[in-house]
Design brief:
Layout: E1 3-11, H1 16-26, E2 30-39, E3 44-52, H2 58-72, E4 75-80, E5 85-90, H3 95-105, E6 112-118, H4 124-129, E7 133-136, H5 144-157, E8 162-165, H6 174-179, E9 184-188, H7 200-207, E10 211-218, E11 228-235, H8 242-265, E12 269-272, E13 275-278
Parallel strand pairs: 5-6, 5-8, 6-7, 8-9
Antiparallel strand pairs: 1-3, 1-4, 2-3, 9-10, 10-11, 12-13
Helix pairs in contact: 3-8, 7-8
Length: about 280
């Protein structure tokens, strides 16, 4: 039977789970997975329920559920089992793109990569070897506005549900961040907060760090301060020179980003203020 996923958050009160499960049973749905989190600090409940249901359309079911949502002041989303379409943006470093492509071809990414966009030509062979469109969009101080206009066009053209900045080394404007809010994931080369600016692993080496890591987060107008989805950390010691730290860091970046993309595509990430609730 067709598969659906319902996610919601609302003020905490009695009867929410009963209302959701009763609605699904009354509509002939079979619950296959249910997860919830009660945030006692904020007084909110977060819920993710995956279920199967035959003979209904997504819009029809969402319209019926809206009556329940109104009663409990719920913000909810209902998705069918269509894999979200992903637009990946890169610059010159290819380790995150390579990892995403491997997981996509192995069926473990959760989404469908639609195209690769870059401000450089370096990774065209990798994209085309995977059978994907590669779109070169130069982005300089003089062309930034035009580049972002083109990005919005590409999001529409490829019907992208998610944009992934897989080491795309350009800062998105505030306007673009607002337009694509909740739909852009970035990988940062630090276990935030961490070393900012150029050569972070050289900075880490100079400071004699014992851990290196990476942070996957949603992009907001506040640079590198968006809601965090996933972080990966690795133990290092004095024997790691900048080259070894860079190699370890690349592994952490690829792993944190791929997890964040998969969880987003499987509708497991719910925003909670400046943070997230992740149903793994």
């Amino acid at each position: 039977m067709p598969q659906f996923t319902l996610t919601l958050h609302c003020p905490e009160r009695a009867g929410i789970v009963h209302a959701v499960t009763s609605f699904l049973v009354d509509h002939g749905c079979d619950i296959v997975q249910h997860q919830q989190f009660d945030d006692d600090v904020r007084g909110k409940l977060f819920l993710r329920t995956a279920f199967s249901c035959d003979g209904v359309e997504t819009d029809e079911l969402a319209g019926e559920f809206a009556k329940v949502a109104t009663q409990f002041e719920m913000d909810f989303d209902l998705w069918d089992d269509r894999p979200p379409r992903v637009l990946v943006m890169v610059s010159k470093a290819g380790h995150c793109l390579n990892d995403l492509l491997f997981r996509w071809r192995a069926g473990g990414l959760g989404g469908e990569i639609a195209a690769i966009v870059s401000n450089h030509e370096d990774l065209r062979p990798m994209a085309e070897a995977a059978g994907l469109d590669f779109v070169h969009v130069p982005n300089t101080a003089d062309t930034k506005h035009l580049a972002e206009q083109r990005l919005v066009e590409l999001v529409d053209e490829y019907q992208a549900d998610l944009v992934v900045l897989a080491r795309y080394m350009q800062v998105l404007s505030n306007d673009l961040c607002a337009k694509l809010a909740g739909r852009v994931i970035n990988i940062h080369h630090s276990f935030l907060p961490g070393f900012k600016g150029a050569k972070p692993y050289h900075q880490a080496y100079d400071r004699g760090v014992k851990y290196v890591g990476a942070t996957a987060h949603y992009v907001t107008p506040d640079l590198d301060e968006g809601p965090i989805i996933e972080q990966e950390v690795l133990r290092v010691d004095h024997s790691f020179d900048p080259r070894a730290l860079t190699a370890a860091g690349r592994d952490a970046e690829a792993l944190a980003l791929s997890r964040a993309v998969r969880w987003h595509c499987e509708h497991r990430v719910l925003l909670n203020g400046n943070g997230t609730v992740v149903f793994r």
